[in-house]
Amino acid sequence: MLPRAPPPLSRSVQDTFAARRTHRVFAGQPVSMDQLATVLFYTFGPQGFIDGGMFGVQQGRVSPSAGGRHEVECYVAAHDVHGVPPGLYHYSPRQHALEALPGDVSRDTIAEVAYHRKPSYEGAFTIFTTAVARRLSWKYRHPRAYRLWMFDAGHYGQTYALTCTALGSSAFQTIAFTDSVVEQLLGVDPDEEFAVYLLSGGVRPGTADFCRSIPAHHRPV
């Protein structure tokens, strides 16, 4: 289970927009569990729920999603996160928790699937997002659904980048990876769930370890 009292996003919206950059160099320092939890909560977690009538209870997330289907899933390769053993996890938005998955997902593993592009694996964590095809195509039963999968992945990518910026950390995103190998690594059936985006994050060079800059009562025990 991840902390549910995330550090405040104190940077203004205007400053966050102006400061957003794609970072390709990380400081090589660990991030706190609070920081990772905050990134996952605002990027992939529900912020509230609404009555969807015939469609049931609907999640309200920061990122828009076609038909409110939220077919994007998040998988986290933790490299250097305080309180989180290195390994591969699936993020559960319902429980706000990391679910451990089998397999060795080291920096070397990420390097192999990401064409050895250093920003993909030199941060404190790497995120792979996927799209669960039937979750969206159940409602949109036409070829345009493919376009919607890609749009939704982009919405999540931008929310991720802005959240990292608001936290004062570095964010990187790319689609340069071997899809089939990533899907095998995650243990998903590519006919049902396919890889769409790689996101990575960590401490910005020249800044103090993030864990030292947050209030003590927010730090993991």
Structural class: alpha+beta
Task: Give the N-to-C terminal Cα separation.
Answer: 13 Å
Please bin the fraction of helical residues. 25-40%
Instruction: Please trace the helix and strand order, writing H or E for each element.
Output: HHEEEEEHEHHEHE
Our count of helices gives 6
Quantity of strands, as a count: 8
Percent range for β-strand residues: 15-25%
Give start-end ranges of low-pLDDT stretches. 209-221
- Quaternary organization: single chain
Radius of gyration: 17 Å
Form type:
globular
| Side-by-side strand order of the widest sheet | 5-4-3-6-8-7
Major β-sheet profile? 6 strands, antiparallel
Summarize model confidence as the mean pLDDT.
90
List the helices and strands and how they pair.
Elements: H1 13-19, H2 33-44, E1 48-51, E2 57-60, E3 72-78, E4 87-92, E5 97-101, H3 107-113, E6 125-132, H4 133-137, H5 144-167, E7 170-174, H6 179-186, E8 193-202
Helix pairs in contact: 1-5, 2-5
How would you sum up this structure in a few lines?
This protein is of the alpha+beta class and 221 residues long.
What would you note in describing this structure?
There is one protein chain. With 221 residues, the protein is α+β, with helices and mostly antiparallel strands. Helices cover 29% and strands 22% of the residues. It contains six helices and eight strands. The strands form two sheets. A six-stranded antiparallel β-sheet has the order 5-4-3-6-8-7, with helices on both faces. A two-stranded antiparallel sheet has the order 1-2. The longest helix has 24 residues, at 144-167. It is globular and about 50 Å long. The chain starts with 12 loop residues before the first helix and ends in a 19-residue tail after the last strand. Mean pLDDT is 90; it is low at 209-221.
